[in-house]
Amino acid sequence: MKYIVLDDEPIIRQGVIHKIRQTGLPLLFAGEADDGVSGLELVRSAKPDIVLTDIQMPEMNGLEFIRIAKTLYPRMEYIILSGFDDFEYAKKAIGYGVSHYLLKPVEDEELYESLNGLIERLQAESHRDKMVLKLQQQAETGQEAARSQTLTRLLNEEETNIADPLLDELSVGCVSFSSVVLQVEPVKLPHYSFAEDEEELIWFSLKNIVTEGFKAVGIAGLLVHSSLNRCEFVYVLGLKAGQDRSIVLSAAETVAYGVRKYLKINAVVGIGPFADKLDRIQEIYREAKQSARNAVLHGGNRVSHWTAQPPYKANRQSIIGIEDSKLLAEWLDRQDADQIIRWTKRRLGAIAQDPNSAFVQIEWFCVDLYLLFNKYLIANAVDAEWTIGELDDMLRWLQQITRLGEIEERMIGLASNVIGRLARSGDLSGKEVMEVVRAYIDHHFAEPLSLQSIGERFSIHPNYFSKRFKEKYGESFIEYLTSLRMKMAAKLLSDTDLKIHQIGERVGIEDAAYFGSVFRKCYGDTPKQYRERFHST
User: Which domain of life, per UniProt (predicted)?
Assistant: First the structure.
């Protein structure tokens, strides 16, 4: 908390400042002035929490200063320091809400008690304000979540008749309607300036970028954060008479750029067709979503808009044909990972390079290849789900892709897992490998472990392993690994004189700030506080 001192006598000002410093109270000196006029200027620039002021000063006395300052900053607290033991002064001061009227020369104990009382009051008010704000945010978040669920059901045709004042307002005030779908990559926290527990802050920032991007060019609309896919945002928009449709593309490009620049998150954007009635919103949304998917296929981090002619002819049977299946089976028999990887890259590249292709064809290819691997593994008595995971996981993952290269990496990883598992098919069952992996984590927790590295080492699917690990041990892989690391860190803090950053490195966390944050979350103290507390007992 900050304080300022007003008095026309420099010696008294310096004496008061010295006394306050001697109290040891958590107060920061923010400035001094010799009259009320200068004091008001100082208040505006320094914005102190507490003002200590004399009454008799040139230009403007202390009581007049308080009267004006109260109108500007109602929450600021005041202590009057006066050489006049005058009831009228005290009465007027009380009328302005001043609760502390101290006579000069000020006693140390009296000054301490007055300041300490104000600090406690300000802290209590601050705590109350934070709690009120938190409750308001929770209420707003709850209302927004409920509204997003309702609108998500509407967009996905699960409901067709809902009452929403913003939709009604859009319908009445606009003559042309469309939607823009923005899909962002899943964010792993901590992320740049966002801490581990700030996911909602990322979504809040992203929503601001989207809404401001469209409103800045006068495009009316409402934003829906999908309740089915947390990485999807839909801006349902309307254009008024005279507005050119080209401004939608310009605004969408500004939004995509802002998300990448300010949040460092990759995004693809799809614009749907325009309609003269809002009751076609479900159809518009479907086309916008398909446009976003096509943006992934033909170059990530871009905006794709709907075209009147579909870019492809759906031919579900042509993705992996009979001859392809035979060829893949032969390579699997020979455990020829190189051939399978080259074939996978070639087929994905062919789909991506065809200007008439669409993202749905990539989805078909991934699903067909998964099913082929699954069928082969089952036929060869191998735990298929342990090796390639569940199909639902793949489908959800495909809906969150923002970069084509991720698909190639995932499918090559899948093929490598299959070959690796076939090569060691006689080693362990899925259940047995869980114990082996846990023992491996126990001995290698200080190394840079991840679900991906575990999957590659043991030829198991990371997502499926993650699910089963939590089911078996009651905590996630990350929670288990973090617990091991923090227990060792606590032991090193108590038993050695190693520097804190060295301890972080020894338990596998090189970022000292992140190590401190994780340790405090686990033990309630910073590493330094934990060490001091341990050695003081």
Answer: Bacteria
3-state secondary structure of 25: coil
Pairing of strands 232-239, 220-225: antiparallel
- Find out whether 484 and 452 touch, Cβ atoms under 8 Å: no
Q: DSSP H helical segments within 7-59, as ranges?
A: 10-23, 36-46
* Residues constituting the chain: 537
**Structure-block tokens of residue 267:** 């995004």
Q: Classify 499 as helix, strand or coil.
A: coil
Instruction: Calculate mean pLDDT across residues 288-295.
Output: 88
Structure tokens at 102: 């101290």
Locate 457 and state its tokens. Answer: 């080492």
Paired tokens of 528: 């330094």
Alpha carbon of 404 to those of 185, 266, 352: distances in Å?
12, 12, 8
Whether the link from the prior residue into 448 is cis, omega within 30° of 0, is: no
Percent of the chain whose predicted confidence (pLDDT) is above 70: 92
Sign (positive/negative) of CA torsion 392, 397, 398, 404?
negative
30 contact partners, CB below 8 Å, separation of at least 6: 2, 3, 4, 42, 46, 48
Cross-strand bridge partners of residue 238:
177, 220
CA atoms within 13 A of residue 130's CA, in its CB half-sphere? 6
pTM for the full predicted model? 0.58
> Which has the closest alpha carbon to 219: 182, 258, 260, 174?
174
User: Given pLDDT bands bounded at 50, 70 and 90, which one contains residue 87?
Assistant: low
The closest of 208, 153, 147, 219 to 180, measured between CA atoms, is: 219
Q: How far is CA 303 from the centre of its chain?
A: 23
What whole-number distance in Å separates Cα of residue 213 and Cα of residue 267? 15
CB 521 within 8 A of CB 529: no
Structure tokens, 83: 């050489």
CA–CA separation, 180 and 235 (whole Å): 5
- Eight-state DSSP code of residue 383: -
Beta bridge partners of 270: 181, 304
Tell me if 449 sits within 8 A of 484, measured CB to CB.
Answer: no
